[in-house]
């Protein structure tokens, strides 16, 4: 342990015998040690805890955003399939090709891609898929099927 410096007056008559009660020693020579000279074992613990907590928040937020993106894509696919089936059903009397072309056009305008179209009399069954990216670098597809036609009762 370094020897205390001798001061010339001003510390209550101690004349260089060490710190007087109430005065603080400089920690610069004893970095990493407490006032008793023992090693400070808790240095940086709060920083690591704060970083770990921040990482947990980032991971939970990313997971939440991915779940929300999945729900939005499923809803988009359902809307595109519903509207495509309705558009196809309105043109079902004009033939299969015209009905499915109309359904594909409406599905595309709603950010979807028609993957299947079946015309059965006046009923039209349309399957649409919507591609989405829940997290960067990962692309998934949401698929939905809808039927439209006259009311049967």
Give a description of the structure.
The chain is α+β, with helices and mostly antiparallel strands and 153 residues long. Helix content is 39%, strand content 21%. The chain is built from 2 helices and 3 strands. The protein has helices spanning 45-90, 96-109; strands spanning 113-120, 123-135, 138-148. A 3-stranded antiparallel β-sheet has the order 1-2-3. Strand 2 (123-135) and strand 3 (138-148) form a beta hairpin. Helix 1 packs antiparallel against helix 2. The longest helix is centred in the middle third of the chain and has 46 residues, at 45-90. The protein starts with 44 loop residues before the first helix and ends in a 5-residue tail after the last strand. The model has no long low-confidence stretch (mean pLDDT 84).
Count of individual helical segments? 2
The beta-strand count equals: 3
**Strand order within the widest sheet?**
1-2-3
N- and C-termini, Cα separation: 98 Å
Q: What is the percentage of strand-forming residues?
A: 15-25%
Summed up, what is this model?
This protein is of the alpha+beta class.
Secondary-structure topology with pairs:
Layout: H1 45-90, H2 96-109, E1 113-120, E2 123-135, E3 138-148
Antiparallel strand pairs: 1-2, 2-3
Key traits:
153 residues, alpha+beta, 2 helices
């Amino acid at each position: 342990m370094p020897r205390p410096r001798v001061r010339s007056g001003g510390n209550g008559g101690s004349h260089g015998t060490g710190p007087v009660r109430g005065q603080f020693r400089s920690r610069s020579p004893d970095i990493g040690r407490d006032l008793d000279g023992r090693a400070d074992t808790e240095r940086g613990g709060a920083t690591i805890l704060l970083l770990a907590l921040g990482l947990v928040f980032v991971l939970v937020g990313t997971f939440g955003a991915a779940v929300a993106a999945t729900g939005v894509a499923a809803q988009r696919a359902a809307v595109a399939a519903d509207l495509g089936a309705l558009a196809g059903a309105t043109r079902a009397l004009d033939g299969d090709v015209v009905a499915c072309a109309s359904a594909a056009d409406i599905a595309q305008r709603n950010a979807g891609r028609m993957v299947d179209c079946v015309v059965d009399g006046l009923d039209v069954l349309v399957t649409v898929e919507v591609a989405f990216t829940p997290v960067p670098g990962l692309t998934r597809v949401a698929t939905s099927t809808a039927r439209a036609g006259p009311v049967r009762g």
